[in-house]
Amino acid sequence: MEVCVFAQTPTPNIPKLDIRLTQKDYKTVPENFEAVCRSAAMGLARHFPERKFKPIRIEKANHQFPVKLDRRGPKGETLVMLSVDDGFGWAQIAYQFSHEFTHIVINHGRPRSGANHWINEAFCEAISCHSLKVMGKEWKTHPPYGNWKSYAKHLDSYAKRILDPRKAKPEGMEFAAWFEKNEKALRLGKRYPKYDLYRYVGYQFYRVIAKDPKQLRALLYLNQGLESQSLSTAEYLARWESVLPKEHQPFANQIAAVFGLSLGLN
User: How many C-beta neighbours within 10 Å does residue 34 have?
Assistant: First the structure.
């Protein structure tokens, strides 16, 4: 059983996040939509209090699939599209937005990860679940608005549905064996790996993250200085470990161990 403990204190509000829904004529109340997104992003952003994030604009909330766009807004804003129907499903909004926000941390201004992009996507999936769990805990006492406390249980139950324990053994296999079977298919996805595959990796990553969320600062270095898009899985993770501050190197090893790999520095 995974245990994650969060202090009963107000949700951190640093760094400041400027998030706005710019799609016009949308059914939901923009201020509510934006409050959910800010809360979702803070599950990760709180670990980067010194970072100044560019304004984020959600151009379309009923797009066919969620995506962080490569192009910028007219003033350099980060552009995101979500796929959330009428905009009143707050858990779904939080899940999708925290995924795209993780791409901002991992991928903005960084080299492309090529055949290892599935690792990036798996981290996004894991942090979406982590953020939902954080929100479910914090909203019980400190939601964005006082009358939202009752929604905390829905955030937690949404996360629990995604974190189905059966994902621990995909196709009934031990994860390392499943990975050996599916590594090639994951890598073939390159920029668009298959969700039906990387979601299982995301589950494993979540289990590591839940033990020590402070290690999420290590994600800032995942693609920093990356020069090759064709590194093997082991090479990609070893390169990441090599550029990490010493206090985060064990985290890279824990992630590598998910795949039955040992990186060597720790």
Answer: 21
Q: How far apart (Å, rounded) are the C-alpha atoms in residues 250 and 28?
A: 43
Measure the CA–CA gap between 200 and 35, rounded to whole angstroms: 29
Q: Which of 63, 81, 107 is the last residue of a domain?
A: 107
| Range from 2-6, 44-48, 107-111, 149-153 carrying the lowest mean pLDDT | 2-6
What's the predicted TM-score (pTM) here? 0.93
What single letter denotes the amino acid at residue 2? E
pLDDT of amino acid 10: 63
- One-letter amino acid identity for 137? K
Task: State which amino acid sits at residue 227.
Answer: E
Based on the fold, state whether residues 83 and 135 are members of the same structural domain: no
Domain assignment present for 2: no
- Number of Cβ atoms within 10 Å of the Cβ of 245: 10
CA–CA dist 265, 126 (Å, integer):
25
| 127-164 burial code (b ≥16 CB/10 A, e <16) | bbbbbbbbbbbbbbebbbeeebeebbebbbebbeebbe
